[in-house]
């Protein structure tokens, strides 16, 4: 025997023996899972966004610091280039055709106390020294001291003459030297 319930759906008595349909349960579970995963993704993304924003601010600050340091380094480089050009010019002068500093050094080392120079002229391979002394022996000592220098090749015999200055008898001398270029 077959029974049919012809009552409309809303008036029908529900049978408690009906099974729960897994397809009907699957849709809410999927929707809740989707919402939870979406909220979790949104939260993690927000945290990463904040973290990356802080990192970006730090990088911008670091970039600004590096730019300022770069500008200072460029200014320092310009200053050092100017200083280098002065040093190069000085070095070229010192290594120039006439090694004047070495000649001045040797004059200073070999000049006796009673001898002083009134003039010095130097050219490519020749130097002329003029001065005064109290006696001829000091002039000879001075000429001998000049010969000790590696840049002085030969010292000519000194030309001397007696002169009177301010009531003192002095020896006026003139020395010629040949210079050896290093």
TrEMBL record:
InterPro entries: Extracell_DNA_Util/SecSys_Comp (IPR052534), PilN (IPR007813). It comes from the Bacteria. The chain crosses the membrane at residues 25-47. Keywords: Membrane, Transmembrane, Transmembrane helix. This is Tfp pilus assembly protein PilN. It comes from Dethiosulfovibrio salsuginis.
